[in-house]
Write a structure and sequence with these properties.
This protein has twelve helices and 58 strands. It is mostly beta strands. Bound molecules: 1-methylethyl 1-thio-beta-D-galactopyranoside.
Amino acid sequence: MTTRTPSAVDFAEDVSPGSGALPPRAWYPCSDAKSLSLNGSWRLRVSPTADAEDDSFAEPGFDAGNWAEITVPGHWVLQGDGAFGLPIYTNHLYPFPVDPPHVPTENPTGDHLRVFDLPHDWPGDGGAVLRFDGVESCARVWLNGTDIGGFKGSRLPHEFAVGHLLKPAGNVLAVRVHQWSAGSYLEDQDQWWLPGIFRDVTLLHRPAGGVLDFFVHASYDHRTGEGTLRVDSDVEGRVSVPALGIDVPTGEAVTVPVRPWSAEVPTLYDGELVTEGERVPLRIGFRTVERDDGLIKVNGRAILFKGVNRHEWHPDTGRALDAETMLEDVLLMKRHNVNAVRTSHYPPHPAFLDLCDTYGLWVIDECDLETHGFTEQGWRDNPVDDDRWTPALLDRAARMVERDKNHPSVIVWSLGNEAGTGRGLTAMAEWIHDRDASRLVHYEGDIDCRDTDLYARMYADHAEVERIGKGLDGGTHRRRQLPFILCEYGHAMGNGPGGLADYQRLFEAHDRLQGGFVWEWIDHGITHPELGYAYGGDFGEELHDGNFVCDGLVFPDRRPSPGLVDFKKVIEPVGIEGEGFYGTGGSGGTLGSAGTVRITNKRDFADLSDLVFEWSYQVDGETVEAGTLAVPSLAPGASAEVKLPEPAGEVQGFESRWTVRALLAADTSWGPRGHEVAWGQGPVTARRLPCVVASDAPVLDERVITLGPASFDARTGALKTIGGVEVSGLRLDVWRAPTDNDEGAAWQSDTRWATVWRTHGLHRMRHRIGSVEAGDDALTVRTRVAPAAREFGLRTVYRWTSDGSRLKLTVSVAPDGEWTMPLPRLGIRFGLRRADAVKWFGGGPGEGYPDTDTAARTGRWESTVDLLQTPYVRPQENGARPDVRWAEIGGLRIEGDPEFSFTARRWTTEQLDAATHLSDLTPGDTVWVNLDHALHGIGTGSCGPGVLPQYQLKAEPAEFSFIFTELG
Ligand code: IPT
């Protein structure tokens, strides 16, 4: 028999931030005071409603022996194989009725219990504090049967004074966590709803005279090269920084010559704050952030954000991240030239910010606030515009700022995300400005920038960003004085994002545009036994947003996606460019004088002395010469023309190019010596196009036409064999398995090409054979390719010729009727029976589409059909290698005139299109090869602008050829 405890419901629905917790203060990982981690195995009981069970479990002596065990930190819905409930994914819709502050009666409630002893050396004097670093969505806490309070604010720390309650052994810590609370209305971020104690639980000894709160003020004057340090501390003490000879009382400012902190050169000085009862290590970075001359400046220089939005994610443990995973994120970012993180959309685990200080990343620290679901009702009843909620908002702002204020990496505070507008936000901004004038305030929803110090937008298209860069945008007078960032852009859902290089060109061209943050860092796929990775809907949620939660630059297992590889190249900190410097032409070049390469230091602070440069020459894709290039250690923003050595070997008659690479000269904290930071390529001599003299005549047998090495079906003109290689189903192909960006977003009308394509039948084109003509020197097959129910189509002529050993196909395509849409692709596809290894000369090693191919470097590459596939969590078009001169697969060599895109997979496009998870793709016995003359670009239509006009594949007359040779 259970007793109803109305207080559980009342607590869950209370809009106040809670009661009993200590005032927020600076977080520090260690001091000489003792601490005890309470992470580990806890007992768990999940009940279906907030008040299904009474709170007698909190009483000492309660027998939880038959409860389940759970790991803390952790989410109960990701443990126990579904026994404790399942995850729910929604983007902005609340998965419960919008009836603030009420939450459903079905409110999964996790009672957590842990019994602990104090270590033998736990001091007998002083107090103790119990710290929770993160609990979703709220918690009530009892220690040894005493109710010590409750709190909301899932991704914020809460501390309780518990010294008077502790016993040497057998302490009973009981925590009741409700999945839904009034706080849930403030936490409507686009992510999985995952209840639980998902960050550390720690008991801290608080010695008498120990440190309470302290604020490290460490500024840098770029004119004098001096830093000024002042540490304000609630408890007086001394501050020492041995390397700077500093030893001063707290509260006293001292100015000395220092090396500044920046994301590029993250100089930290070790120091110590010593009070009567405690010694706390300090890591001090001197830097000054200001808005000056309409620009965000650090240490006197305008900075350019090359950033990502980072949600905390691990495919097994959700938002419970261990130290290795956080470090992996930082190292991956640094190795991919990322220099900034927006902690979308809540303060991260505090240890992550230590890593940002250490390795060097600019941080926009965002408060745990989003009320996006209120958009469904025109923002009526939005908590940020309702005074009853303001204490909760201010509590959140204070808990973020106080926790994170001592991190040099944090240069901007963000009020939150997608919360509409209202007085509560203004109150937060005022509080933050007042508490910390040394940083800027961001909030994208403040379109007039009344409360903020920078103008931020999300997903603005290139044309608008350019207008903003030129100062031709409208807006309030205040906004027009402010620097601009894209707090979200480049939606990395599935294949893409496309158009990053075009944004970067704008950022580099206009001072006001201070860069942006790609949405987002990682796919939030959940490890699933059958599906590989699960996304929205896979747990039977009644409301969900499908794979919109898989929109990261790294896959759930943190393997970099092609999008990250492209981004790395787009944002590389060194520009390496040069024109072709030998006479070039269709038939190969002639040797001229040596060329130059322009090297530009695109960094904001550091010179190039940490890099070495290597040059090499490639002839037909093979490196024939290489050496070291002497490059002056250019200052930030400077560039130089550097002479390249003359190629010694033969380049005439071949396609040749130089490659220059910038590599780390020595090991750094984040990358090994030799790690490639930037590269460039330039032509020396142009490609000699392949040529086949049509000398053979087609020979007609009863059923078969032979031409050179090939045989064709005499009735249909279909290619059957090339030498001993069987070829099936060769024909024009315009269809691709739509990408998430092709599908577009529900709220967008002009970028939803997948729907347009399907409506017009581009996925079910019919091929009518008009004629099969065996002429003197060619076999010509005339067809018309068109979908049922429509009058438009593509007149397609296949012209086959041969010189006896090689077979050439020239495809001519002429659109017929009115084409109102771009084509997904234009090329041929065919099946091969036996194919595995692949070699090619062209763009690689990864995939590249017209607006995502910056990182494709021209060379000779080898792979296998399986490794050519990019494992997007929701299967879709992928894996095309661009600008291919020739490829070898399945016993054939294929040369292109002009270059083509190459794709090969063990399933058809139709199967790829039908798959919803990688586990749906099962290899057949045919390898399907696509040779594309052109592909439609990718864009970011899944949440943002579509494909820019220059990357759209228009239905226009086209002609392209492939030469097939059977490999010996
Ligand atoms: C924007 C959100 O800020 C972000 O959390 C995420 O949902 C992203 O979109 C899409 O993945 S909201 C914007 C599309 C209105």
